[in-house]
Write a structure and sequence with these properties.
Catalytic activity: acetate + ATP + CoA = acetyl-CoA + AMP + diphosphate
Strand order of the largest sheet: 16-15-12-10-11-18-19-27
Strand content: 15-25%
Structural class: alpha/beta
Enzyme class: ligase
Organism: Variovorax humicola
Distance between the termini: 54 Å
Oligomer: single chain
Radius of gyration: 25 Å
Protein name: Acetyl-coenzyme A synthetase
Helix content: 25-40%
Shape: globular
Bound molecules: 5'-O-[(S)-ethoxy(hydroxy)phosphoryl]adenosine
Pfam families: ACAS_N (PF16177), AMP-binding (PF00501), AMP-binding_C (PF13193)
Amino acid sequence: MKTNGHDATVALGGKVQGFAENDGAKGTKASGEIRLYAVPEPVMKRAHVSGMSAYEELVAEAGADHSAYWARLAREFVTWKRPFTQSLDDSEAPFFKWFEDGTLNVSYNCLDRQVERGLGDKVAILFEADDGQVSRVTYSELLARTCRLANVLRARGVKKGDRVVIYMSMSVEGVVAMQACARIGATHSVVFGGFSAQSLRDRMEGAGAVMVITADEQLRGGKQLPLKAIVDEAIALGGCDAVKDVIVYKRTGAKIAWHPSRDHWMHEATEGQPDTCEPEWVGAEHPLFLLYTSGSTGKPKGVQHSTGGYLLHAAVTTKWTFDLHDNDVFWCTADIGWVTGHTYIAYGPLAIGATQVVFEGVPTYPDAGRFWKMIQDHKVTVFYTAPTAIRSLIKAVSANDAAHPKHYDLSSLRILGSVGEPINPAAWEWYHAHVGGGRCPIVDTFWQTETGGHMITPLPGATPLLPGSCTLPFPGIAAAIVDDIGNDVPDGQGGMLVVKKPWPGMIRTIWNEDERFKDSYFPRELKGYYLAGDGAIRDEATGYFTITGRIDDVLNVSGHRMGTMEIESALVSCTELVAEAAVVGRPDETTGETICAFVVLKGPRPTGDAAKKIAAELRSWVGKEIGPIAKPKDIRFGDNLPKTRSGKIMRRLLRSIAKDEPITQDISTLENPAVLDQLMERN
Ligand code: WTA
């Protein structure tokens, strides 16, 4: 296999060790040799990509003619209204275009096409509510519901290219809302239901939304949490005059404020609407959605995705990475507010006609056995979740054995997946042994909001596994590791992760910010490669990639992406109290990272109970500004912040202090070394 000049076949051959019980060194480096988990025979036998040789063939095909390879898949996986005549257009790089003169509709591909294939009565979504109630929606029903809502959107004047913000609970209606936008060519921007009114407002304004689709409330872990009230608050903050209509899905029936000129109940508006709705056929490059995500500078970026290329990437990765077959039951536990919920709930599984579980609640309610019970009840065969969830469930088991997966029948499982952050080998081993019963490969999928879908990941029927490594690039993804001028670094040496060639699912631009798109992802010194923003290292023997974490100021807390500067600006926007703030991440066993803030107040530096009280106030301030997920766990106060003589905040030093590490850095340039003792004090 040739990937970027690296021949991993030779390395893999002979070194692959089968999985053996009682083998203390399984899946780890032992005496200079890498021990991998071999692909289980039964998984390999039925896999779409079966065996390393099949993987290598695909990589070779892409290597021989990159754009022809993707064009072949685009014809196989996507139904086009008007076929494309050109695969890749790189004439305006880095604004790449794929399949540009082709026309299609994503909702047609996800719904009508499945009904036409005879899958109308197949369950598309098996929904389990927070309280355990289960409902099933077939492909025919999902199509009808999508059409009814799409008709409402059209009737309210939403047109092709208009932006619709979706601020919804995990629900069938959330998926229907996304599909309905796709059906009429409206570009959706889903905002995670945990974001505050201020964040929602910023995203509505940024996108220039004409409509918001929301629910009265969401139900999570037995708690009723407001959604519609936050939409009202966000609109009241101003700047969203373009929003003409708010469509409200009635989830809990709670009493909510009502603006008759603007608000419409979803059930009333859709009643009597026809079950059919002519899809809007759009060009392949038409923006299917924007999704705001954090970058290293202050303002979140509206990542813009395409229609044709994105759908292709979603469909092909769903099918191959999860090796989905007709009778599989797939469950991705992500929220539709994040990219994982876009690609592997709202689009990928439907595009290939799969049955999937959609879950409203949280993994620990009513108890920490919820995931295992649901896998048992619904006979889930492919389960995809985040390392944070695994780690918190491991913790729950050590507190109470009743939550252990061994108390549940998980024999339906065939493949497990991990996403969003690095999975540490200990969590990997536990997941493999106790959830997967030692027989299910774990696909550790590395990707990003910007990449649209999986980039580096094992294929379960082909790739021997190494805990903690996302292994090899998906066929057609030219991943590589380079130094800061774009030269390949030798295996075994860390560097920056890049992608050397464009791929269909990639980000097209940052909404309204073309220059920022170029600067962020295609910096001049990197020879036109896509810069992921993560560090990575490739193993010398296997060629396997391991992600070493972000190389910019982006934090990953429980798999949620946040910019340190976003949190800093939220803190300093508390102008009554805060003079200056610096935010860094601290490694955390369960959540991956936690947020640690160093704050200089306008008044005197507080200590003791006063410090605790102000820290609590600032935490809730950040919760209101951004959302609860951005609240700093640790807030410390200093008379000022450690700066170099040129005035730069010494973040590396702050990272050490946050970790309570002894300071080894050179602090001779530090203007005010006395402040360090203050910042070491926890509140
Ligand atoms: C991190 C989530 C290690 C990485 C799909 C990336 C990972 C960021 C993995 C993107 C993984 C995601 N191993 N790190 N398997 N998957 N990451 O945009 O730092 O929310 O850049 O997309 O998560 O986060 P985002």
